Amino acid sequence: MTPTLMQIDKVPVAEVIVRDRLRPVSDAGVESLIASITEIGVMKDAIHVRKKKDGQLYLMAGGHRLEAARRLNWVHVPAKVWTDVTDDWARMVEIDDNLAGAEMNALDSAVFLATRKEVYERLHPETKRGVAGGLARQGSASELSSFAAATAAKFGMTARQVQKIVAAGTALSPRDVAHLRQAPRPVSLKDLTEIAKIGDPVERGDVVLRLSVGNAKSAADARRSLRVEGGLQAPAKSPEDQALLALTSAWARAGKAVLRRFIDQEFGEIAPLVADEAERRGEFGLATAIRGGLDAK
């Protein structure tokens, strides 16, 4: 079945059905589009819809454009109407429209590219070269390499960028994606790459949950917190603890000659601290002697 473009015109806004989208429309994106339409007087790009055999119209691409038309109270919206369309082809149109034209955050990019890989390999089975047994891993790498090369060329990325983003998106379940969309701080590709490393589904779910409610500033931070709470890692040292550790380490490595030079150089700073410590320990004679020596100087 070959998709056929049957109409380039307008369709009634109210008749376009929206279902099963990879991401929700954003208010900011719609408002920005409305501002553009108001300024230039037209919608620059048409939406793409799929006409099924029952005559109903289903949105393939242009979710933000359709929502902008609704908010502007348009009766009709510019559209390209397609027939003889498969589910995979319709999904690919949605993905490519978003990747090519929309500002995508890291999470959306990961979801869209991971889904694109699945659909691409169904549409192009010749690119999928998985084999059984010990070569399965090599086959998987070949699949990703083939897809990454084609996608990188289409969207102006490097193949390595595509591979990293796909790996991150593939590791996420629909529930993970829903939770991460709620995070007060947008998740980064680094966060998604860290999540992709987590083999334990319980740990992955806990990390995603902490990000979604703002209890961790990054996926790595969430993992550290979980290890500390589980007794698998000591709590992070404070800046003061870290400075003391560095000073102690440097003191231990220095020879006596260096230590004598240091004390001579910093005596005016060190001696009052030693006198205070002597008093704290009840060694008042030592404290008095030190202060007397400082006064004599």
User: What would CATH call the homologous superfamily of one domain?
Assistant: Conserved hypothetical protein from pyrococcus furiosus pfu- 392566-001, ParB domain
Major beta-sheet overview? 5 strands, mixed
β-strand percent reads 5-15%
Describe the global form: elongated
> Structural class, from secondary structure content?
alpha/beta
CATH architecture of one domain: Alpha-Beta Complex
Structure commentary:
With 297 residues, the chain is of the alpha/beta class. Among the domains are: 86 residues, Conserved hypothetical protein from pyrococcus furiosus pfu- 392566-001, ParB domain (Alpha-Beta Complex); 59 residues; 58 residues, no CATH class. The protein contains 13 helices and five strands. Strands 1-5-3-4-2 form a five-stranded mixed sheet. A hairpin with a 5-residue loop joins strand 3 and strand 4. The radius of gyration is 31 Å and the shape is elongated. About 4% of the residues have low confidence.
Q: Brief description of this entry?
A:
With 297 residues, the chain is of the alpha/beta class. It has 13 helices and five strands.
Characteristic terms for this protein:
13 helices, 297 residues, alpha/beta, 61% helix, Conserved hypothetical protein from pyrococcus furiosus pfu- 392566-001, ParB domain, five-stranded mixed sheet
SSE arrangement:
Elements: E1 4-12, E2 16-17, H1 27-40, E3 47-51, E4 57-61, H2 63-71, E5 76-83, H3 87-101, H4 106-123, H5 136-155, H6 159-170, H7 174-181, H8 189-196, H9 201-212, H10 219-229, H11 239-253, H12 256-280, H13 284-296
Parallel strand pairs: 2-4, 3-5
Antiparallel strand pairs: 1-5, 3-4
Helix pairs in contact: 1-2, 3-4, 4-6, 5-6, 6-8, 7-9, 9-10, 12-13
